[in-house]
Amino acid sequence: MHLTVGLPGVGKTSLARELERASGALRLTPDEWMLPLFGVRWVDFGNKRDVLEGRLIWVAHHVLRVGGSVILDFGCWSSEERYALRAIAELAGADFELHHVTLPEDERRRRATVRWREAPEQTFAMTDADHDRFLAAFTPPTPAELDGSPLPPPPAPFDSWPAWAADRWPTLPRLDA
Q1: What band does 132 get if pLDDT is binned at 50, 70 and 90?
Q2: What is the four-CA torsion angle of 67, 159, 55, 41, rounded to 10 degrees?
Q3: Confidence (pLDDT) at 49
Q4: Which of 84, 50, 86 is nearest to 70 (CA)?
Q5: What residues form DSSP beta bridges with 3?
Q6: What confidence tens digit (pLDDT) does each residue in 81-103 have?
Q7: Is 60 helix (H, G, I), strand (E, B) or coil?
Q8: Of 174 and 114, which is predicted with more confidence?
């Protein structure tokens, strides 16, 4: 399992497409599913994004269990999300690779704006307030996350990371039950 991590405009999807071409892995990019399924591109429409991501994680787990490779182009702004996805990959007997994509903040914002102007059907407009909110909500991966150190225990009251994931993504069944 490959997981692309970063804020909008840093190049996560471009990297995910490169990984897809190079490896033949199944690429799952929620932004490409939102409009066809829900008629929206933006992530703040109720829990539709969470509903979609839960199903995509479930598909990814099945692909991994049968020996395939998958790329989750999710962004994953919290360490808990990243730990949970790594645990799900390990549960399927798969390797896990985290790809943290970064850019200087002014370049990231510029690229997000250019992307919106050039292909508004593929993305969404972001105000400075949106960018500020995204930046404040993002927790970059730690060195321990990047080097594959052992997973920490899940937060209370969860007994496993897959249990935490099933609570986080409403359409993801508990995969370790």
Answers
A1: very high
A2: -120
A3: 86
A4: 86
A5: 72, 98
A6: 999 999 999 999 999 999 999 99
A7: helix
A8: 174
Write the CA distances from 139 to 2, 7, 30, 76, 117, integer angstroms: 18, 10, 20, 9, 28
Q: Is the confidence at residue 121, as pLDDT, over 70?
A: no
The DSSP secondary-structure symbol of 39 reads S
> What are the C-alpha distances in Å from 173 to residues 40, 81, 110, 167?
25, 15, 38, 9
Q: Which CATH number fits domain 2-150: 3.65.10.10, 3.40.50.300, 3.10.290.10, 3.60.15.10?
A: 3.40.50.300
CA angle (106 as vertex; 100, 112 as ends), nearest 5: 70
Q: Is the dihedral of CA 53, 141, 146, 152 positive or negative?
A: negative
List the domain boundaries for the chain.
2-150
The tokens describing 21, both together, are: 């071409």
pTM, rounded to two decimals: 0.93
Both structure tokens of 50: 């969470």
Name which of 15-29, 60-74, 124-138 the model is least confident about: 124-138
Helix, coil or strand: residue 94: coil
Burial label, 73 (beta-carbon count in 10 A; 0-12, 13-18, 19+): buried
Query: What pLDDT score does 39 carry?
Result: 75
Residue 169 CA to residue 80 CA, distance in Å, equals: 12
